[in-house]
From TrEMBL:
It comes from Pelobates cultripes. Pfam families: DDE_Tnp_4. The keyword Transmembrane applies. Transposase-derived protein that may have nuclease activity. Does not have transposase activity. GO terms for cellular component: cytoplasm; nucleus. This is Putative nuclease HARBI1. One of its GO terms (molecular function) is hydrolase activity. It comes from the Eukaryota. InterPro entries: HARBI1-like, HARBI1_animal, HARBI1_dom. Residues 200-350 form the DDE Tnp4 domain. The lineage of its organism: Eukaryota, Metazoa, Chordata, Craniata, Vertebrata. Keywords: Cytoplasm, Hydrolase, Membrane, Metal-binding, Nuclease, Nucleus, Transmembrane, Transmembrane helix. It is found in: Cytoplasm; Nucleus. Belongs to the HARBI1 family. Its cofactor is a divalent metal cation.
Length: 396
């Protein structure tokens, strides 16, 4: 009996020994590589917003012919951790407005793949906003954003397309009487000038010199000449952004869709206000060159006050988005992509205006290139009659 009991105990110990050996071998070949794997870190276990762009660096070890790849993740930019003042300073928008904009373009900028370290849409948007506001070079913005320069370039294009799809929502020249009357009331309140549907002028955005010399303007630097029409509250109503810097302001207007709208006869009575770079017509009134009477001087004073809205718009736009002003540098892109950047900034400007986000006008903005006035022969007889009627009716 004693011998049988000892045999049973011995068999049990041998069974336990084999079980322990089995689990040891299983752990050695299956679990141990995962425990010590360099990829098994916190970034693989937790999804965080500030995950970095995956970069592969080749590093040499003691064997000069042997290289191994090490993954490095840069910290990415985020709204989290910034107070509201810092957000406004860096991106020129409040956190609330940035989140609102993100919701509008989210479907167009979020990554389509399931890759662990794909760049989130919010990172793309913040990188673009930082570039628009700071005018920093791509390399600087990409480094601060935590993404590589080639990635930033791709993502900027994606964000531009997404924002510019919002054009019909944010940049619209009004066609209904109620909206037009609201604009007229705004100009009349600020200047006492009647029936003003908008203030028109052009501004230049500097470019890295393209191959065509036609982009060289009268100040001898390369640019796009950008036509804008604004309301009294600096909201941009119409935009033409693709013309070379040497193009005259009046030529841009004449060949724009706005010209067709204004000459169609479908709008209620009213006019734009422009300077002497435009011809005097029945729908675009210019100042009198040498006013003689008190009524003419009063007309010119009211015209200047109303037309100043477009100058304030340019100042606000370029102070918010320094990439558009030569004092902040030049756009290092083709004219076509430069026009896309201008359009996106104008959409964002209108978003800021609609949310009452003011910006301090900087002092070092580039003085615009001089524009020669149009010849007297280009002023129409109908325009002269309209201007005289306005002077006699409202300023006498």
């Amino acid at each position: 009996m004693l011998i049988d009991a000892l045999e049973n105990c011995l068999l049990a110990l041998i069974s336990y020994f084999y079980i322990i050996i089995f689990f040891f071998i299983y752990f050695l070949f299956n679990l141990l590589p995962l425990v010590f794997s360099p990829a098994m870190d916190l970034r693989a276990m937790f999804h965080i917003h500030e995950q970095g762009e995956e970069e592969e660096l080749l590093q040499k070890d003691s064997n000069p012919n042997h290289r191994h790849r090490e993954r490095i993740f840069r910290p990415r930019i985020s709204l989290f951790g910034l107070n509201e003042e810092e957000v406004r300073s860096r991106y020129r928008f409040s956190t609330e407005v940035i989140l609102e904009l993100y919701e509008q373009i989210q479907q167009d900028i979020e990554p389509n793949c399931e890759r662990n370290h794909a760049v989130p849409g919010m990172v793309k948007l913040l990188s673009a906003l930082h570039y628009f506001s700071s005018a920093s070079f791509q390399g600087t913005v990409s480094a601060l954003s935590g993404i590589s320069q080639p990635s930033f370039s791709r993502h900027l294009t994606q964000v531009l397309k997404a924002i510019n799809k919002l054009t019909p929502q944010y940049i619209v020249f009004p066609s209904d009487k109620t909206a037009i009357q609201t604009i007229k009331d705004g100009f009349h309140k600020m200047s006492a000038f009647p029936n003003v549907m908008g203030s028109i002028d052009c501004t230049h955005v500097a470019l890295s010199p393209p191959t065509e010399d036609i982009y060289r303007n009268s100040k001898n630097f390369h640019s796009l000449n950008v036509q804008m029409v604004c309301a009294s509250d600096m909201r941009i109503l119409n935009l033409v952004a693709g013309y070379p810097g040497s193009t005259h302001d009046s030529y841009i207007l004449k060949h724009s869709s706005l010209h067709s709208i204004l000459t169609s006869g479908n709008l209620p009575e009213g006019w734009l206000l422009g300077d002497d770079a435009y011809p005097l017509t029945e729908w675009l009134l210019t100042p009198i060159k040498d006013p003689k009477t008190a009524a003419q001087k009063q007309y010119n004073a009211a015209h200047k006050a109303a037309h100043s809205a477009i100058e304030r718009t340019f100042g606000s736009l370029k102070s918010r988005f320094r990439c558009l002003d030569r004092s902040g540098g030049v756009l290092q892109y083709s004219p076509e992509k430069g026009a896309q950047i201008i359009l996106a900034c104008c959409i964002l400007h209108n978003l800021a205006v609609s949310r009452n986000l003011d910006v301090e006008i900087v002092d070092d903005l580039e003085t615009p290139p001089p524009v020669p006035p149009v010849s007297k022969e280009e002023n129409t007889q109908a325009g002269k009659q309209t201007r005289m009627r306005v002077i006699n009716r409202y300023f006498t």
